[in-house]
Amino acid sequence: MSAWEEPTPPPADEMIKGLWRENPVFVQLLGMCPVLAVSNSAVNALAMGLATTFVLLLSNLLVSSLRHFIPRQVRIATYILIIATFVTVVDYLIQAISLDLHKALGAFISLIVVNCLILGRAEAFASKNGVFRSLLDAMGMGMGFTLGLFALGAVREILGAGSLFGVDLFHDAFEPWVVMILPSGGFFTLAAWLLVFNAIRQRRERLDRAVAGGAAS
């Protein structure tokens, strides 16, 4: 490796970065439309997260495999075509598994096509790296996106309906916070999670600086 080249990160780092350091929801703030729209329950949030991960994995796999054959001039159109194909597959799969879930997710399944997370990973990573690393990157980003969606969906369902995955958690005297399952509840919950996430990250950065300072002295 040349002295001017940056060292290649270990393969495991490609997966871990999506969970924390480059989390799509809490760090990059990508795909906010489905994050806020379908996270009114844990089931909807988990289903959308898994559907997005499925599309992300397969599109990264195909883009990485064909990266040397896709003309640069039409690469974005080609990526969108690939993504749209797998979105159609996952749309029919959800429809076959549960019509109620398909109705609950509505048009947001089709909108996975324009999710900037998926197109961004195809352009920024899969088109420049091998299949193995691209799959790890897709898995990490997909898991991070699913984790973010589930974190919002669980809180909103617990506070807004007093249940989790449809199972009642509180006594009958509990008064649900109806605002939490409304669109405004998505903004409130996202803001709270961003506050917690950033506080943890800043605390970790301070500890790392303190350790580095101690080692230098």
What's the number of extended β-strand segments?
2
Q: Uncertain runs with pLDDT below 50, 5 residues or more? A: 1-6
Gyration radius over CA: 20 Å
Query: Major sheet: size, sense and barrel closure?
Result: 2 strands, antiparallel
SS element count, helices: 8
Sheet/helix structural class: mainly alpha
Order of neighbouring strands in the sheet with most strands: 1-2
Amino- and carboxy-terminal Cα gap = 32 Å
Give the SSE order as H and E letters: HHHHHHHEEH
Task: Tell me the count of domains.
Answer: 1
Residue fraction in strands: under 5%
Question: How does this structure look, described?
Answer:
This protein has one domain. It is built from 8 helices and 2 strands; from the N terminus they run H-H-H-H-H-H-H-E-E-H. The protein has a two-stranded antiparallel sheet with strand order 1-2. Helix 1 packs parallel to helix 7, helix 3 runs antiparallel to helix 4 and helix 6 runs antiparallel to helix 7.
Give the topology.
Blueprint: H1 11-19, H2 32-37, H3 42-65, H4 75-97, H5 99-105, H6 116-126, H7 131-161, E1 163-164, E2 167-168, H8 183-216
Antiparallel strand pairs: 1-2
Helix pairs in contact: 1-7, 3-4, 3-6, 3-7, 4-5, 4-6, 6-7, 7-8
Question: How would you briefly describe this protein structure?
Answer:
The protein is mainly alpha-helical. The protein contains eight helices and two strands. The chain has a two-stranded antiparallel ribbon with strand order 1-2.
Q: Main attributes?
A:
217 residues, two-stranded antiparallel ribbon, 8 helices
